[in-house]
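Appendix B. One record, verbatim.
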Amino acid sequence: MRPYQIALKNLMRRPARMFFLTVALAVGLAAVVALVTLSNSMTADIEHTMDQFGANILITPKSNDLALSYGGISLGRVSFDQRELDPSVLQRIRTIKNRQNIAAVAPKVLGTVTLQGRELLLVGVDFAAELRMKPWWRLTGTEPSAPDHALLGSSTALVLGLKPGDRLTITGRSFTVAALLQETGSQDDGLLFVPLAAAQAITAKQGKITLIEVAALCSGCPIGEMVEQIAGVLPDAKVSAIKQVVEGRLQTIAQLKRFSLGMGGVIALIGLLVVFITMMGSVNERKVEIGIFRAIGYRTGHVMGIILLEAGLVGLVAGLTGYLLGVGAAAVALPLLAQSGHPHLLLQWQVALAAIGAVGLVSLLAAVYPARRAGRMDPADALRSL
């Protein structure tokens, strides 16, 4: 009889013990797989949610300016050699290595205008890109799409007494108020938005851009790399990451991964001890059997191979079962834990291979000492217990 046949028969002779050992390993692995799958899925979900939170890269012209602030009170800035961006930078941004991670590019032109005797900050935008970058905007009216459409912040609309459908004139150009922006609690409440080309004409900045906001999808790249890549193609511009968004995202991801790794390590240690104790008990119970094997010519390697093969088979079955259980548990728990309403369960073949391989390796490592002890067992001592 070959060693692998002996190992299989021995597993079938003790079905209850091997069943509970397999269940113990499978449950432990299922917990790890569920944590890892949940961590990866929630990370992707958080990244997707935060990627839609708005711009995370800001591009402005390089200028020599000084901030006028003291004790937390800002009095504005004094700028020297103030420049504007050329529209060609929009095409150059799309040439960077990680251009597939760029979700939206929103150019803007800023200027002040006088309307109804009040000074207002006029912002020229590409409405399609702006609305895609700021999905949290809630509009009263219709989305602006025509060249003569205007969008008013909530405070601006209140001060001017305008509502959707009203007309307003800015330096001789007539606009229709397409929508009012519901209160956001940000600077957007006090702005007047018009199409980019109209704002360039009103502010006499034809063919110029004041700043560009970029929303980067960075699931597969550090935001810092994209900032460096954009700075490389725009040497005359200042490119900076919006720290609050980036650091918040990185901290959340790091915490999830540290928690998963910590729990995985604890469960792996418990699984190793369970296999070790079970295999030691099995070897002690099979002294006579092992002694007979040694007496009829089985060498140390043969006996060790039988014990290790048994442990490896148990680990393989437990790995497959545990992975499926873990994925199932993650699928049930993900909708309860994810931020978005429609989270996507992220299945990765690397996780499946690593999980099954890790259980097999833990089982083999835990069985090494019992196997060595069985292989070095003296046949005379073993048979003396008959």
